[in-house]
Amino acid sequence: MIFFKKTLFFLLILLLCSCASKQIKKEFISENANIFLQKIIDINSSKGPSNGTGQITVENNGRVHKFKIAFASDSRKKIRLEILSPAGLPALSLSYDGSKLYLRQNNGSKPKSFSNYKKILKKITGVSPDSEIIASLLCRKIPLIEYSNAILNSDSSSETLFLSSENKKQSINIHKSNGILSEISTEEDKFLINLENNGNFLLVSEKTGNKLLFSSSSFSPLKNEPHKNIFILTR
């Protein structure tokens, strides 16, 4: 039981990290890149706030941890996770409301909130994906960075879109059979992403080699966007 609690906390810290958004002036977008971007926007526009269940596998420094979860996401940056015990009951709740991370053990204890948890995240796992990435992937959307330049590179076998801004870069390659392959580079790390057509995804830190694998069990769009209080643990 002690091991289970420790690994639960380990996983929850892994999953969330936020970054402030700002308007970025578009400098150069090629015509072909704009067409490709529109395909991605069309794919993402058909997907919104969602919930479901699945299994998360975390590989950190050679150690592997597996958890069953229930989740909700607003598809933008807010996330709610219920980590399930081996008996299938909620053991730990986590939510991120866009500015604060909330953690609560479901044993009657009060939730704790964290406004700056990036340092903790890196210390434990070395992985720091933006919350926008996780929220998008849980809703089966293709994560997109804010960009000022967009170029499409095409050959006889594939098309790859390259996006960039002052401090971020991203490449996106869409395969009909294998889903979406993407790389997102920040000043701190590079993340390799494989989003499969069935909603499963793999997130890998190039810097540390740590991996986060999500296997979907059930998935359904929320008919109405969840109220913001879903993402705030108040009691």
Description:
The structure is a single chain. With 235 residues, this protein is an alpha+beta fold. The chain has one domain (2-231): Clam (outer membrane lipoprotein receptor (LolB), chain A), CATH 2.50.20.10. Helix content is 19%, strand content 40%. The chain has helices at 2-15, 31-45, 118-124, 131-138, and strands spanning 28-29, 50-60, 63-73, 79-84, 90-96, 101-105, 112-114, 149-154, 159-164, 169-175, 179-185, 190-195, 201-205, 211-221. It has a 14-stranded mixed β-sheet with strand order 1-8-9-10-11-12-13-14-2-3-4-5-6-7. β6 (101-105) and β7 (112-114) form a beta hairpin. The radius of gyration is 18 Å and the shape is globular. Mean pLDDT is 80; it is low at 16-24.
Note the run of SSEs as H and E.
HEHEEEEEEHHEEEEEEE
Write down the CATH topology: outer membrane lipoprotein receptor (LolB), chain A
Helix content: 10-25%
Largest sheet: 14 strands, mixed
What is the CA-CA span between the terminal residues? Answer: 24 Å
Q: Which architecture would the CATH scheme give at its second level?
A: Clam
